[in-house]
Amino acid sequence: MKGGFRQSMAWLHTWTGLLLGWLLFAIFVTGTSAYFQEEITRWMTPEVRSVPADPASGFAGAVRWLEREAPGASEWSAYSAGKRTAGLQLYWVNGPDASADAPTEARLDGAGRKVEARETLGGWFLYRFHYDLHYINWYWARWLVGVAAMAMLVAILSGIVTHKKIIADFFLLRFGKGQRSWLDVHNVSSVLFLPFILMITYTGLVSLATHYMPWGVAANYSDQAKFVDAAFPWPAPGERAGAAPLVPVAPLVERAEHGWGVAAGSIRILNPGDRSARIIVSSAPDSSMFVRPRSITFDGVTGRQIDARDPSGAATNTESAMIGLHAGRYANMLLRVLYFLSGLAGCVMVASGLILWTVKRRARLPDPGRPHPGFRLVEKLNIAAIVGLPFGIAVYFLANRLLSLGIEGRSEQEIDAMFIAWGAIAVWAIARPARRAWIESLSAAALAFVSVPIVNALTTSRGLPASLMAGDSIFALFDIAMLVIAAGFCGAAFKVAQRDAGRAANRRMRKASPPATEVA
Amino acid sequence: MSRGTRILRGARAREITARALAAVPLNYAVTSALTVLIARLLPGGGAQASIGATMLSFAIFAGLAMTAFAVRSVARLWIAFVGIALFAGVVDWMLIHWGGRL
Amino acid sequence: MIHILLFLFAFLGFSLLCLARERHQRDLFGRKLAASTARRLRRGGSLCLLLAYPAAGSILGWGYGAVEWLGQLSVGALVTVLLLTRLSTRRSQRPTGA
Predict the structure, then answer these.
(1) Helix (H, G, I), strand (E, B) or coil at A266
(2) pTM greater than 0.95
(3) Which stretch of DSSP H or E encloses residue B63?
(4) Residue range A110-125: mean pLDDT, rounded
């Protein structure tokens, strides 16, 4: 392109970043929150007080529950949500004599009882949003997210190529210097966290690889089902052979765990109560960086080991590790905090890039008082994207506490509240002049976040004072995090207001001084 | 706006459009053809080759997208991309026709 | 334990690398250091950052250790940048005759 290699890469970096930046910010914010999705869900279901359980007794309790509630099923399965949550998610496939709308799933707490909590999708919704979005069919949503992820990858690579002074400018972070400061923030957040940002983008694409690039599979398999069977076999229940009692599950789980040296993550029981029953125990996906589990198949009547499977193959293991790296479920608490901080850096990177674009362009406007429509659009979209989504998330938490329990479609209403709030910020940003809109919406976000712990204390028995006294770290840290975020938005609103007041004073001074002195 | 400026502005828009079309839809065709080729040639059995080729495809796509904006001549860019796609496509067809699929 | 050690490795390493740069030497000390000193600082800093990986890997496992090593490097670099910014501004605000 004209102007040389570096210049064309800089141009590419700017446009891929700008056009997809608003969507990327939403993906980064919700994706980052997903590192604590279990904690968010716990906060959003204050009725549940979990009981720590070891996997074996947990699965035994699940089997007892399923024997009572779904005895005729052809298949039972129970999944642990990971080391950080007690409780199991159960699924089953009803037998032919069950009614069509009989339930097929349930959630049990650590003591084997069905969880009775307010209907909410909790932190899981935010996690799911970051690749499935909402209100859009998942197929197209994933394509949209994939386009954004590829744009991100191109932006990263072109950004690296462009930044010739990448080492020279490594340590610079100057505040209060307008465009220079925003560039520094953008550099620091992207360069210092480059390993994470590059990893998260590439592994994000790999996580949904065949959605975007099915041709690698089509090259070798005439039918995608054959590939799935070859790569990720999923045994189905066999022919029924007559009634027989199911062997106790706990000793089998313990045997499997002992052999692997890690915890079990799920069990599947095919044809329970039949002579052809099989019990498949799988390792926990968060027990190592490799997300694809190992599994052992036992005979469901005698308890004899029939089959053992270890995912193998260089490509399979690479894919397994890449998805594991992206999701970070294997990480202990410290590494999880590092993941979260890195995700925040990613959010800062995208946001500062978007703002940098307007700051740079504003300096070049022929008439700053009347910018062209493209510039105004970017300004408004920036506010809607950067402040709108966090504001919406705060309202999502508030809705969780304020919507009455037991109403129909409660979890959908919580989600609707988030998008209505986000939309309100967008409308406000369109209606108001940009500078005022920034200050007002940042203040609104601060207010919304500070309300969360207050409303929590008023509507539940697990407010901040109570959780601090009870040593309930998850609830306490969540409420404290809300206050910290509120303080951040408050500080940002102040800064913008200060700069605004400073600029207004400068304008007044220039107007007051006689025109002759204006000439250089 | 003078006629000269209008022509220049139009030329730049056309150049960017040509590069963007090469960088996205044409790139997808090229990358897909190359991915199929790699999937046929990688060792380790069908599943490993398919997974490996698929994972590499994103690096290929990103690299080609950047190339579309880096090279000087748009005409040569298009010729090269179309050429690679056709060549890889023909080889793919031959490999699949004679090697079969699982 | 290992986690604190890793952070210190990262912070020290980046601090040394930072001090090896002329611009930051001027910001912090008011003068340029000798080229040989700068070279030694650069080598020491790089060594610090690199040695952190075997330390992490031997205790946490080579895969897990690699991830935490990179994460700690980022945070160590960030703290270095923030500290450098703080010290540079404070120095430039001091009413010296420099």
Answers:
(1) strand
(2) no
(3) helix B46-70
(4) 84
